[in-house]
Here is the input.
Amino acid sequence: MTPSQQPDTPRPLIRLRDLSKEFTGGTRAVDRVTLDIAPGGVFGIVGHSGAGKSTLLRLINLLETPTSGTVTVNGQELTALGSRQLRAARRDIGMVFQQFNLFRSRTVLGNVAYPLRQAGTPRAQARDRAHQALRFVGLADQARRYPEQLSGGQRQRVGIARALATQPPVLLCDEATSALDPQTTGEVLALLRRVNDELGVTIVLITHEMEVVRALCDRMAVLDAGRIVETGPVREVFAAPQHPTTRAFVRSAVQASPLLDLLPAALRKHGVDEAVAASVLAEVSA
Amino acid sequence: MIQQDWSLLWPKIAEATGETLYMVLATLALSGLLGLVVGLALYATRKGGILQQRAVFVVLSTLVNVVRPVPALIAIVVLSPMTRELIGTAVGTDAVIFPMTVIATFGVARIVESNLLAVEPGVIEAARAMGTGPVRILLTVLVPEALGPLILGMTFMLVALIDFSVIAGTVGGGGVGNLAITHGYLRFDTRVMVVTVVILIVLVQAAQLLGNVLSRKVLRR
Here is the structure.
C-alpha cells in the first residue's frame, strides 16, 4: 500500500489487513497482504503461476479461510461473520472463473437465474432479471440453450451474466480470459470494460497476462511469493517498474507487442515524463 | 414326473413375474432413496467435503464396507430375525424386501458417492461463491449435475436386484426364482426353466433400455 493513495481516495470497497493463508504442510500461499481497493475501478493483481494470486482472490470472498488477518468488503468485515451471514454477504460479490464453471444441467437462463433463486427472488422476477443480464452480455437469444452448445467466449459471457445477476457492487475475476483465444479474450475484456463503465461495478481481476492489465485495469498490484511487491496506477507501474518481478512482467508485455515502435508516442500520450519515458525505452530495448 | 399343462402354468408364471417386479421395484425405490441419503452423507462428510465430519464419515464408510461384501443369500439368512421383527415374517415376497433393501442401500450409497465425486469441483465453488449453503449445493447442484451417471448407476442396481430377487426366491422369497426352483428344478420341468430365463432376460433388457433412454435424455446426447 502506497501511503500517497490514502488521503484523496474514497473509503475502500475492499480492505485486506495483514492477510495470510498457510496451507497444511506449511506453504504460505499469501503472506501478510495489506491492500485497499477503491470502489469504481478495475484492479489487477498480476503474478507468476504459484505466486498466490488465485488464493488471494479467493480470500476476498472467503472461499478460502485466512490463517490470519481480516477481510472487509463494502464496510462489512467478512472474517467476523458466521457462516449464514457470510453466505448472505457473498451474494454481493460476483465471481467469474477461468473454466467458467457453468452448471451443465441447467440452461443458460437457468444458470443466470440460479443465484437469484438462491437469494430468494421469486421465480418470475428471477427470470426477468436473468433475461436482463443476458441482454447486457449480448446473449438474449441463447437463453434456452445449454452451456455445451456455446463457444468458450459465449460461456464466459454467461458466467459474467450469472455473476452480475444479483447486481453485486464488486466482481472478482479469476483468470477470466486465460482459457480463451486472443480474439475471444478481446470480446470478454470489452464486456468487462462495459461492466465497469456502464454498471459501475468494481472489478478485481487476477491474471498472468500483462496485456489484460494494460487493456482493462487502472490500478494494479504485483504478487510475488505471496507478497505484494508493488502497487499503484497501471500507467506508473508500467512506466517505472520498481521490483524485479514487475520489471520482468512489464518487459514481457512490451516485448510481446509488435507495436514496440509506437511505444515512445504512447508514453507521451499518457503523459509520462520525458525522462521516465527515456528510461523505460532503455529498459525495454535492453 | 408329471408335466403340468401350460394352461395351468401360465397363471403361475404371470404371478411369479408380478412378484419379482414388486420385490425389485419396491427394493429399488426404498434403497434408491436411502442410498441417496447415505451417499450424499458420505460425499459431504469426507475430508475436504462441504460438511466435513470425520466421525460421521468413518462410521458410514465402515458400515458400507462391512455390509457390501456380505453375499445376498447370507444377508437374507443373517437378517431374518430382524426381518421377522419388522415385517412379522421372514418368509415371502414382503419379507425379502427388507434384507434386499439393506444390501442395496449400501451399494447405491457407493454409486451415489462416486458419481458425486466425479462432479467438477468448479461448479461447487461457483455455487459457494454465490452464497449457496451446503445442503442446497447437494440438492440443487450436485444431484442435478450427476443425474445422468446416477441414472445409469441406478440401472446397474436394478439389474443387480433382479438377480438378487431370484436368489431371494429360492429361499422363500417368491417370484420367478421360486418358480424356477419349485417347477423347473425340483420337478425337472425344463420348459419352466426356459421360460423363467427368458423372463429374466426380458426384464434385464427392459431395465437397461429404460436406464439408457432416461440417462441419454438427461445428458442430452
The domain at 6-219 of chain B is CATH 1.10.3720.10 (MetI-like fold).
